[in-house]
Design goal:
With 396 residues, this protein is of the alpha/beta class. The protein is built from 13 helices and 14 strands. The protein starts with 14 loop residues before the first helix and ends with a helix.
Length: 396
């Protein structure tokens, strides 16, 4: 018996492959410094855990509305609206089992087979996977390295948008680059979307994960609310990665279709987890120490990388990712393949990280070599020790 041919178009979250390689190396008795996976090794705030346990004890263990329980939808509309300067109601909110389902359901809702969808490359690999799986035409747009990080190639984006695109995926506060659009860049993207009548998925998983400044949603710009779906997740902000709780924020007509997909896919998001989400939004102060700890880790990781000859890295003001340029270091050490460089680093130092290749197929003309380090799942002491070993190894 044969399996469905469409499975050939289904990708994966490639960081998990790096995690497996690191686990196998660690199982042989080797020390691992885990920079590869964007999980958070900090505890979910106790008030959220207590709220979940209380909800279970109260019998909130059965089915609930496909779009989410009313108290959570109302709380999300108020919180997300206030943080983005938008007028939202519960009708705009569809609760999800994490942020990732929003990607899939957005694509199913706005894209027909053969439609072009713009997405960032390097970028979160599930965008490309889902576009291809549902029969779309993937249109990857690139970034340029700048003195302060990375910027979108707006000329390429305009050209691709004019080639018959239906939608654009936009991930400000970006994984894996850790970069953030300027207001001018965000407005340019909004103008492109309006001029080409594009739907927009604004992936805002890291909207609150910032160390200075304030975040802006593209959905808050004039003419954008009616064409934009926001991806929101509790995973990062509240250290709830395994809880699987998030939502889509959408125009009402789109929200109704996403809720119908909920009914067909998973019926509903776990009731007692939603109750915990209500508590998280009502009393978010328990998550504040997590952000301070992540900033300490960022600073330690940047300092460790800056000590490596041939490595350059920008200091991001948000997310928990670094995307250093390792071209000069690789050349000095005799490496021509970034995958070989990563494997050698793991085996010689225990430092485990992803490479640019884990975040989309390299585009024509790419010559620089990059790696991605996530510092959300590793302590300051281990960051310092691991990158010290990495620096010693890189310097020979």
């Amino acid at each position: 018996m044969a399996l469905a041919k469409r499975l050939d178009d289904l990708g994966t979250e490639t960081a998990f492959a790096v995690s497996q390689a690191a686990a196998e190396w660690g199982a042989k008795g080797n020390r691992i410094f885990p920079f590869h996976l964007g999980d958070i090794n900090l505890a979910t705030p106790a008030n959220i855990v207590d709220a979940m346990n209380a909800a279970i004890a109260d019998g909130k263990t059965g089915y609930c509305p496909a779009a989410g329980i009313a108290p959570l939808r109302e709380a999300l509309a108020a919180d997300i609206g206030a943080g983005r300067g938008m007028d939202l109601t519960a009708e705009n909110i569809v609760v999800q089992s994490g942020g990732k389902p929003v990607i899939t359901k957005f694509i199913q809702t706005v894209m027909d087979p053969g439609d072009g969808v713009l997405y960032p490359n390097p970028g979160y690999p599930i965008y490309e996977s889902q576009i291809e799986y549902f029969g779309g035409r993937p249109l990857a747009y690139r970034y340029h390295e700048t003195e302060s990080g990375f910027a979108i190639d707006l000329d390429q984006l305009r050209e691709l948008a004019a080639s018959g695109a239906t939608a654009i995926v936009y991930n400000n506060l970006q994984n894996p680059l850790g970069c953030e659009s300027s207001l001018d860049e965000m407005q340019a993207i909004a103008d492109i979307a309006i001029e080409n009548d594009l739907w927009v998925l604004s992936d805002e998983a890291y909207f609150e994960m910032r160390y200075s400044g304030t975040s802006t949603s593209i959905a808050s710009l004039p003419g954008m609310a009616e064409r934009t779906v926001i991806l929101y997740t509790f995973s990062k902000k509240f250290a709830m990665t395994g809880w699987r709780l998030g939502c889509a924020v959408a125009p009402v007509a789109v929200a109704q279709q996403i809720a119908k997909l909920n009914t067909n896919d998973e019926s509903c998001t776990t009731h007692f987890v939603q109750a915990a989400g209500v508590e998280a939004l009502a009393r978010p102060e328990g998550a504040a120490p997590m952000l301070a700890e992540l900033q300490r880790r960022r600073d330690a990781a940047v300092a460790g990388l800056e000590a490596v000859d041939g490595v350059s890295v920008a200091t991001p003001e948000a997310t928990f990712y670094l995307f250093p340029n390792v071209t000069a270091a690789m050349a000095r050490m005799g490496f021509t393949d970034v995958g070989d460089f990563a494997t050698a680093a793991l085996h010689d130092t225990g430092v485990s990280f992803c490479t640019r290749r884990h975040f989309g197929r390299p585009q024509p003309g790419e010559e620089q070599q990059y790696i991605r380090l996530a510092y959300s799942g590793i302590s300051v002491d281990d960051i310092t020790e691991g990158l010290g070993l990495f620096a010693d190894w890189a310097h020979g």
